[in-house]
Amino acid sequence: MKKELVYRMKAPYREDLNIYGYNFGKGDKSACIVGPTRGNEIQQLYICSQLIRVLKTLERTGNITKNNSILVIPCINQFSMNIEKRFWSLDNTDINRMFPGDPKGETTERIAAGIFERVSGYCYGVQFASFHTPGDFIPHVRMMETGFQSNSLANLFGLPYVVTRKPEPIDTTTLNYNWQMNGTNAFSVYTTENEKIDEASAKQAVSSVLRFMTRMGIIKYNCHSGYIASIIEEQCLMPIRANVSGIYRRLKQPGDEVYFGEIIAEIVDPMEGEVISSIVAPSDGVIFFAHKKPLVMQNGVVYQLIRRIHT
User: φ and ψ at 154, to 5 degrees?
Assistant: First the structure.
């Protein structure tokens, strides 16, 4: 393993921002794994650290195949992580909405440009990301529909679902999108948690990346073969919304099966404690996403459902 300084930014009033990467193997630029770009992505940082731990052992035992190099950047935004802030600590901008970056632009644009220059040219790129709405997901692989995405490659991670998304203008500044447009097969891996460590889904994420690299001939690693993924277009996920604001009582978890008419959440009056709304499943299906904060606003999405199609 070789530790390298990927990007440095001078800071006038505190120590410099130093972003490090960990290199494994030698030869062609095969796989690049990028961790948190946001300060609350603790689970994603933990996953990268566990991946580095396993790759160190694989390299020491000669299980990284010849002419393959792997780069892991475990954290891009430690400034925000140190003060528990999701976006850039000074101007509240999102580094993952600044790619491919601008070396002469604002702070986060310069960081994105420096990172993108280093991670470009890899055959496969994996980012551990988080969703803009706080909540829990079934672990899955997500890709932009740029015309360069490959469902069959995404299936090799062995996670239960692969989600594809038609890019909106805001998506064109993400790392995933720009990787794809510059010739890298790019995937974003989502797990159950962001701000807390969920050991089970973290292990699942580490295994999925190791499984993928094994199947692509980059490393030799023995693990369970995983799932044959279901491919879902994001627009086919059914949003279920709260009809009033209040204290949210979640009754179902991601991965749970639900049935038409079943009560899946309750909203409680924050002053008088009475249940003022019961949210019911509008269809048979499987919970894909579940809101987790204790309060919910009227019309906020509390679940996304994978509808079961009856034939």
Answer: -60, -30
What is the pTM assigned to this prediction?
Answer: 0.91
The tens digit of pLDDT for each residue in 105-136 reads: 999 999 999 999 999 999 999 999 888 777 88
CB 215 within 8 A of CB 170: no
Structural tokens at position 104: 């002469």
| Token pair recorded at residue 109 | 């644009």
- As a whole number of angstroms, the distance between CA 237 and CA 239 comes to 6
Length of the chain equals 311
Residues 6+ apart with CB under 8 A from 124: 30, 31, 32, 153, 184, 185, 186, 187, 212, 213, 216
HSE (side-chain half, CA atoms, 13 Å) at 98: 25
C-alpha–C-alpha distance, residues 1 and 61, integer Å: 12
Tell how far CA 198 is from the center of its chain.
Answer: 14
Tokens representing 256 are 């749970």
